[in-house]
Amino acid sequence: MTNQEIRQLAVWLKETHLAGAEIRRPGLHLVLKRSADEVAVPARIAVSAAANATDEPLLKTPGLGRLLLTHPEQSDVLASVGSRVEQGQLIALLQVGDLLLPVRSQRAGRVTAVLVPCGTTVGYGEAFMRLDAA
Amino acid sequence: MIEILSATALATVQDFGRFGSLGYGVGTSGAMDHLALALGNLLLGNPEDAAAIEIPLFPFEVRFVQDCAFAVTGAACEASLDGQPLPPFWVAQAREGQVLSLGYPTSGSRAYLCLAGGIDVPQVLGSRSTQLRGEFGGLQGRALQQGDRLAALRPGKSALPTDFGVVSPSQALPLQRDGLPAMRVLPAAEYECFLEDSRAAFWAGEWKVTTQSNRYGYRLEGTPILPKAAMEIRSHGIVPGVIQVPHGGQPIIQMRDAQPSGGYPKFGTVIEADLWRLGQAPIGSKVRFIECSYSEAVAALEDNQRYLEEVRRLVELHGLASR
Lengths: 134, 323
Known about the structure:
The structure holds two protein chains of two kinds. Chain A has one helix and twelve strands. In chain A, strand 1 and strand 2 form a beta hairpin. By secondary structure, chain A is mainly β. In chain A, strands 1, 2, 3 and 4 form a four-stranded antiparallel β-sheet that branches. Chain A has a four-stranded antiparallel β-sheet with strand order 5-12-10-7, with no helix packed on it. By secondary structure, chain B is of the alpha+beta class. Chain B has two domains: 2-170, no CATH class; 176-292, Cyclophilin-like (Cyclophilin, Beta Barrel). Chain B has helices at 34-44, 169-172, 196-204, 275-279, 294-321, and strands at residues 2-4, 12-14, 52-55, 60-64, 68-76, 80-81, 84-85, 90-94, 99-102, 107-115, 149-150, 164-166, 176-177, 180-187, 207-213, 217-221, 236-237, 242-244, 252-254, 261-262, 266-270, 286-291. In chain B, the strands form four sheets. In chain B, strands 14-21-18-19-16-15-22 form a seven-stranded mixed β-barrel. In chain B, strands 7-6-9-4-1-11 form a six-stranded antiparallel β-sheet, with no helix packed on it. In chain B, strands 2-3-10-5-8-12 form a six-stranded antiparallel β-sheet, with helices on one face. In chain B, a hairpin with a 2-residue loop joins strand 6 and strand 7. In chain B, helix 1 runs parallel beside helix 5. Chain B is globular and about 65 Å long. The A-B interface holds A 71-75, 90, 93, 95-102 and B 76, 85, 87-90, 106-107, 163-168, 170-172, 307, 310-311, 314-315, 318.
């Protein structure tokens, strides 16, 4: 990725009012973040392996939409506080228009806190649940 | 390909129905909840009217003899694949040997199991729907039995994304009156021949879906609907949705497998756009009716169409984004 391409990306982010972009490819990890009105100069271009799922206990949203903690047709909460979840288990849903996209746990653990009320509109990468090692 | 594991009754292969042959006395058949069928197909990238299995009795269990993508829509029925719970109105990829179990519904009464490409059975008179009275269409013109095997038209690992769902029709197109599910009804030819009090009672009253309710017709229980004078009418053509009132005043609503002709007086017709609501009303539940005009009935059809179009558009976008 050339500097010119990165500058173009930054201009597009500003025009579309997006908060940032993150691109991972073999040999490339690019993070762009907007600060105030100006699009920041690219912070770093790291030639590194992709980061693994960290020990960080916070689970983050995979995209923009309405975060649902219960399926609209069901009454039980998908992952209640205090319950144990397995890796890959459905813990929330992201509603995008009429579609419901799955939010699955990246690892096993115990839900210790739910940080966002059901139905909140969320952006990409927002912390919504705390999962501690069970 | 799937194999039916459970001892089941009344499950049939249905698509949207058999149209164009009413004049020959061949009823339409087809899914009681055509929206759920359409949504399952859209989730799989199938043509909207591809054939699926309509399941009215639970529990129900099938084994996947081959890898195949599938969707379960309609009644929310505690679906699970090899023990892993699946949300309602969801599409998933099954691997050979996996078992899909459907439990008792917590809402609605009929579930639809759609397979990638649609169920592969021969078409008869342009449709894959099962015509039970005539014993043709679907799988050998009969309800499914334990041990039956049904092939999908597009088995294997799906090239389209799986593991996502859609907001159900009852959420997207809600219609209630005083807390009960409601259906819109057009007054029919003999509407004016009924007593004014009876007509008012029909719109104001709660109607219970009795145990004598099935794909042929729903018998409702409520305040008797009485005519001004006894009527004798020759048999004439009728369609699903027609509300007949025999002696005794308890209405019968013709459903998908109804006879194409009948001679009882017709009070009204449940509009085509709301037949799915009735199809999902469980036995013992109560419903309300809302009077509507012809143009409102047409607008309701357009609302349904718009919802399906929006789902199709979003599913396509999701497919593009996942590549």
